[in-house]
Amino acid sequence: MHPGLDAVVVLPTYNESQNVRSIIERLLQLPGVGVLVVDDGSPDGTGDIADDLAHATPGRVDVIHRTGPRGLGRSYVEGLQRALTIDAPAIIQMDADWSHDPAYVPSLLEALETHDLVIGSRYVQGVSVVNWPLRRILLSAFANRYIRGITGLRAHDCTSGYRCWRRTALARLPLHSVRSEGYAFLVELLFQAHANGCHIGEVPIIFIERRAGASKISRRVLLESLATPWRLRVQRAARRIGSTFRRADDVARANGARVTTGTVNDAG
Ligand SMILES: Nc1nc2c(ncn2[C@@H]2O[C@H](COP(=O)(O)OP(=O)(O)OP(=O)(O)O)[C@@H](O)[C@H]2O)c(=O)[nH]1
Ligand SMILES: [Mg+2]
Fold first, then answer.
1. Residues 44-79: pLDDT tens digits?
2. pTM
3. How much distance in Å is there from the Cα of 94 to the middle of ligand 1?
4. Which residue, 15, 86, 118, 253, is most buried by CB atoms nearer than 10 A?
5. Alpha helices, DSSP H, located in 29-104
6. DSSP code, position 63
């Protein structure tokens, strides 16, 4: 990628041959924006189309061709890690199916001046989604309440995949420790950002149902999404208990007590 870009858009793709060319071309109309496609070996040739564009616009488009087990979470970890090696001060996550209009990029970047993370949110001003059946709206509203209730996250739209990061803030997060393979990745990363004290903002977007192609949400991915908030909550509680014990040890040491951290037998 060219040095001196203002932002890199990480674009995960799986079977997006009907959308990938037009979305990249639209993103390239934005000055100072580079695109990093993370293709999961799409059988429909999405990766080849992205390669064509990378050859046609060197320094603005790059492609990661993943092999091995596919997944949105896995793709994002790889893509965001690569994006962090590029010198751009902003890193954007976006779907490749035209649900996330590139026209919002300037307002996301503007809000980033006072935040570490800006979410392109469907739920800041009521519900702003187009062409979604009621069932889908209700599911998404339930998912957000469920996630907020369990994790304590406060964003209106915890599951939005349209996000803009300050590079330095993203670099502080332990991306390598993310365990979610699918869409739950989005919640896990937001949780990490919250735990690391990131200043998080939301900018309203209108979300439009995909233009073409098919959704990749599977039953397995949905189950992971249900379980992940609980896992994050339990992990946080375990960390808190661990640090309480460590503090108690430190106090005891400071008071000159003999501290044993092994089993009862060891202590004897
Ligand atoms: N690399 C990679 N990308 C994926 C994978 N699954 C989905 N994506 C991409 O992630 C983005 C969001 O996926 P969608 O299937 O649109 O999911 P969604 O937006 O929640 O579902 P729809 O509303 O049906 O579009 C799109 O750009 C997909 O191509 C995957 O396993 N690997
Ligand atoms: Mg979509």
1. 999 999 999 999 999 999 999 999 899 999 999 999
2. 0.89
3. 10
4. 118
5. 46-56, 72-84
6. E
DSSP 177: G
pLDDT for 175-196, tens place per residue? 999 999 888 999 999 999 999 9
* Rounded-to-integer distance, Cα 174 and Cα 16, Å: 29
Give residue ranges with CB within 6 A of ligand 1.
Answer: 12-14, 16, 38, 40, 70-72, 75, 95-97, 99, 161, 210, 215-217
Q: What pLDDT band is residue 257 in, cutting at 50, 70 and 90?
A: low
Query: Which amino acid would we find at residue 206?
Result: I
Tally of helices (H runs) and strands (E runs) in the chain: 9, 9
| Among candidate residues 20, 182, 191, the one with its CA nearest the CA of residue 97 | 20
CA dist 190 → 9, 25, 148, 200, 267 (Å): 18, 29, 11, 9, 42
- CB distance 39 to 66 below 8 Å: yes
Contacts of 87 (CB under 8 A, 6+ apart): 3, 4, 5
Closest to 65 (Cα-Cα) out of 55, 75, 57: 75
Q: What are phi and psi of 77, to 5 degrees?
A: -60, -50
